[in-house]
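$ ./design --mode recover --in tokens.txt
reading tokens...
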């Protein structure tokens, strides 16, 4: 079940972004989507959070109606991807799973229902993306929130953390959970993205965690007023000013991830 790394002749870099709530997953994911798009890639970003705000900075600050809202409000299932998506900056196709009515139902089931619908609508055959990014809620990997890695939708997991104690605790839980899936051929941890909060000794703390967990720090995102400034305008920094140093951090990370994926494909490491 699920999707292979190559679909219909088109290779996809498929990444799920996890981390502690409030750690900046959506900011990281949307800026990475914009960076991949700026590098000429065809990108899909799927927000897997009931708040449905993952893609807002790719859409000029305008919220996207979540799939679960559509299913509750309409008499029929959507007949096309266009009914449950919007095209954002750089041509990024944006989709939000949403969730149940607050206080009712399981948010994870919203992800499972959405993924089933996307398969029925043949999203990947139709759009043929180069990169798919999943922005996933939660400090732990369980239930529907594990669907991006358990069902083959994502091949790599990137864990966003700062040097704060609870962020590292969550990162450890996520890494442990993903590794419990690895022997079944599911996604694997591709590394850590340090989203700096400027706590004392932050880099040393995250390096120590990475070394103890046998993980790489694949990205180091400095605190930046430019990120906040452009988010107030409903933009990523890539859209706001691609020449800024912070924009180059995301562009360099996107390029590195593409190169690593190409190298893995050449060696058959993820076949």
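writing sequence...
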């Amino acid at each position: 079940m699920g999707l292979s790394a190559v679909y219909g002749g088109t290779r996809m870099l498929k990444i799920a972004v996890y981390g502690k709530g409030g750690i900046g997953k959506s900011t990281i994911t949307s800026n990475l989507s914009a960076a991949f798009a700026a590098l000429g890639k065809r990108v899909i970003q799927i927000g897997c959070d009931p708040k449905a705000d993952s893609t807002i900075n790719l859409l000029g600050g305008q919220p996207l109606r979540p799939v679960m809202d559509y299913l509750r409000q309409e008499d029929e299932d959507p007949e096309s991807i266009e009914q449950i998506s919007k095209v954002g900056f750089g041509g990024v196709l944006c989709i939000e799973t949403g969730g149940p009515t607050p206080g009712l139902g399981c948010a994870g089931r919203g992800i499972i229902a959405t993924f089933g619908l996307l398969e029925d609508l043949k999203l990947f055959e139709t759009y043929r993306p180069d990169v798919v990014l999943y922005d996933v809620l939660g400090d732990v990997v369980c239930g529907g929130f594990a669907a991006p890695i358990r069902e083959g939708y994502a091949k790599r997991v990137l864990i966003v953390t700062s040097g704060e104690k609870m962020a590292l605790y969550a990162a450890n839980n996520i890494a442990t959970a993903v590794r419990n899936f690895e022997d079944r051929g599911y996604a694997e941890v591709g590394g850590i993205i340090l989203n700096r909060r400027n706590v004392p000794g932050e880099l040393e703390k995250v390096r120590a965690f990475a070394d103890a967990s046998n993980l790489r720090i694949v990205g180091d995102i400095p605190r930046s007023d430019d990120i906040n400034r452009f988010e107030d305008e409903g933009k990523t920094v890539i859209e706001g000013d691609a020449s800024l140093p912070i924009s180059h951090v995301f562009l360099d990370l996107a390029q590195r991830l593409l190169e690593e994926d190409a190298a893995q494909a050449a060696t058959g490491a993820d076949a």
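exit 0
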